[in-house]
Design a protein that fits this description.
Largest sheet: 5 strands, antiparallel
Number of helices: 3
Number of strands: 8
Radius of gyration: 20 Å
Shape: elongated
Strand order of the largest sheet: 7-6-5-4-8
Helix content: 10-25%
Order of helices and strands: HEEHEHEEEEE
Oligomer: single chain
Strand content: 35-45%
Distance between the termini: 47 Å
Length: about 160
Amino acid sequence: MIDKNVVKSIVEEWLADKSYFLVDVEISSDNKILVEIDHADGVWIEDCVELSRFIEDHLSRDDEDYELEVGSAGLGQPFKVVQQYVNHVGKEVEVLTGEGKKVKGVLKSVDGEKFTVTVSEKVKVEGKKRPQMQDVDYTYDMKEVKYTKYLISFK
């Protein structure tokens, strides 16, 4: 079986002088290699082809046969790395908390492994009879949420 760390190091070498970043490398038991990359402005097919060729130049099919797929992380897919959170600051996201509650709001900030989402919700205000809509910030640990993903809007 092809070593995941070998593939990662090949990809990291290709990424060294580019503004792309690695999202994930998966290798199945039958040597299907899936490499996901991302970029703040999106991923170009030409760059996926270039990375695919670069990986093929550094792996030998004579030693071990494999199937290779290189692509983008996918719009609307759950975030896997911190850089995806950073790239989506100021945009609307959906968070599924560890308790199973879905929260929709604007990704306000990212600090290490924690991130803050601003949610508009009804809040009881002192001196008012009815709850008022207000922005409330919620901070989450990336490792404690089930997922966070960008919400695509067609407004």
